[in-house]
Amino acid sequence: MRLVVVGNGMAGSRLAAEVRARDADLTITVVGAEARGPYNRVLLSNVLAGTASPEQVRLPAQAGDGVNVRLGVTVTAIDRAAREVRTADGWREPYDVLVLATGSEAVVPRIPGAGRAIALRTMDDCDRILAAARTATSAVVVGGGLLGVEAARGLAGRGLRVTLLHRTGHLMDRQLDAEAGLVLGEALAGLGVTVRTGARVAAIRARGVELSTGEVLPAGLVVLACGVRPVTGLAEDAGLEVGQGVVVDDRLRTADPAIYAIGECAQHDGTVYGLVAPAWEQAAVVADLITGADPSARYRGSRLVTRLKARSVELAAMGETHLAEDPAGAVEVVMFTHRARGIYRKLVIRDDRLVGAILLGEAPTVGTLTQLYDRGGPLPGDPAGLLFPGLDDAVPADTPVRMPDSARVCECNNVTKGRIRACWEAGARDLAAVTAATRATTGCGSCADAVEGLIGWLCAQEEEVPV
């Protein structure tokens, strides 16, 4: 069977690896529009901040072992009748199974001078921003979503005067409620980022950013973080159903049974997922199906946990974060704010289940809450104990000794404490070895401290065993 994957990003490259792990003989061709090999797009903000190098965020190359990778090649058409893809350079590649992993593209607002700004989406964009940052003294970041916040913090960490503009009333309004957005803004202000909400950009001038009020903010560098849209043109031209993304079923298959779609370009059950964990879950399902490793595999959707990766700003948000207390008692909200310390904690509870949470600042129970949200299980004890460990002894603290082996440590790769323990017992005694064996830390990277701490705890336990 001939498998062709269009897209060599985090979804496409992972699919090739998953398929090869299940079937050593299947012929795989991966076509990527970028000239670079695959890299972790989620960690571009770390490259921008200087906490990671481009080499450190590279993903394993899939070329070799029966995997043909074509870099810098754009697929221009799908001929469904002939079952082949066509590229801009005239090449044609036949397929038995085609997987679209075309990802998303940056949204560039239609305003005068937008071409003077750099939209942060690819490693090439990151290189351009870093080159401009070497001579600039001030920067404006347009867009206060997750990527914009990370970019602003990263540039401020490089010594630039940074202004972060967001058109709505508070930062990260898709994930956070108004109070959390306010606390996040104040935390960023303490780190050197000036936050302007309710700000609308009228134009980008040579001397800076002009707002709708006529005010001009001086800037030697302007970065756009205005969101992304799925790349669906190839599928649409081929006559496949497209909504927000390429519409797929629980098999991640389009209406054409020979064509699948995964990652940011796919729309499953009305939802387009913009995070890496769902893309990798989808890649595993498709690999199971097309290799026959598990013909019953199905994708049922993902429960999302958003983690902010800006230095000195800890944030996790999950589920229905915008709900308020219901007078009828259907929804209970437990909330604590300490703005002076940059702390905001909110739990949203329905039917004794955690359906949403925001944890900003110090959050010693983030792992416990993530597990409760993931599993949908009943809450233990007094909900206040979930925010303040020690108030309720029934609430497990986020320490290795009290974590069950089923506790998920790496959300992106679904790696549990038990799996890390098993790798450690098999001889993986440091972070690099555990990462190689489990892929833990290779997604958003926010679990690195937890994984390293768990390894350290396991090593300490071994030293305490009497000989």
TrEMBL record:
Residues of the FAD/NAD(P)-binding domain: 2-283
UniProt keyword annotation of Flavoprotein present: yes
SUPFAM superfamilies: FAD/NAD(P)-binding domain (SSF51905)
MF GO annotations: iron-sulfur cluster binding; metal ion binding; oxidoreductase activity
Keywords assigned: FAD, Flavoprotein, Heme, Iron, Iron-sulfur, Metal-binding, Oxidoreductase
One protein family per Pfam: Pyr_redox_2
Residue ranges annotated for the NADH-rubredoxin oxidoreductase C-terminal domain, each copy included: 305-363
The protein, known as: NAD(P)/FAD-dependent oxidoreductase
Organism the protein comes from: Sphaerisporangium album
Higher taxonomy: Bacteria, Bacillati, Actinomycetota, Actinomycetes, Streptosporangiales
